[in-house]
Amino acid sequence: MSVLFHLEARSKVLGEAKFCEKMAQFDAKKFAEGQPKKDTLRKEKGSREETQKPQAEWKEEKKAAAPDKCGEALAAVPKAKDPFTHLPKSTLVLHEFKRKYSKEDTLSVALPYFWEHFDKDSWSLWFAEYRFPEELTQTFVSCNLITGMFQRLDKPWKNAFTSVILFGTNNSSSISGVWVFWVQEQAFPLSPDWQVDYESYTEKKLDPGSEGMQTLVQEYFSWEGAFQHVGKAFNQGKIFM
Q1: pTM for the model
Q2: What is the rounded distance in angstroms from the CA atom of residue 212 to the CA atom of residue 210?
């Protein structure tokens, strides 16, 4: 009852509703008049390209004209001299020894190859010992001293080999090792890149022909033996190769 009352009241106020009697039709002429002309679009597009083109060319010219400051700075830095470049070829091919040492037995293969090809006129042996054993506390900290030196000492690895050993226990340990270098003098001072912790060690050149020298080298390279000169038991070793 209330719905009919509202419909009749609406009809009296708004009048009788009329529905669409004809379908809307598309007027192409009016649609075309409302669209921008193609010439206008081309003109606007062309003006944008003309504005952008000089900017792109300016950027390229600026890029070409800008000096390469980084390249100039690098070129001005003098290259480090390699102390090994002037040395003649040797009968000991260190790369081949390292291959045998890492993949084959040390006592039966690697060491016999080393002594058979060792050229005392080109290569030298050095015994290095850590200067401050009283400062060594925990063995893992002492071992980190060796590892840290090896990690920072990267340049001479192609022309050097060493076995460094940590002896003893916590608060009673020592560090020493045998180095092989392709020079006759102390190698570390020859290049700034090699001067890594070397001052913490005493270095003594070894005579390959002296009594007991091959035994010393064998013990350090194989990590086996009495190590009578040390007075402490073997704890662990590190190889630089």
Answers
A1: 0.64
A2: 6
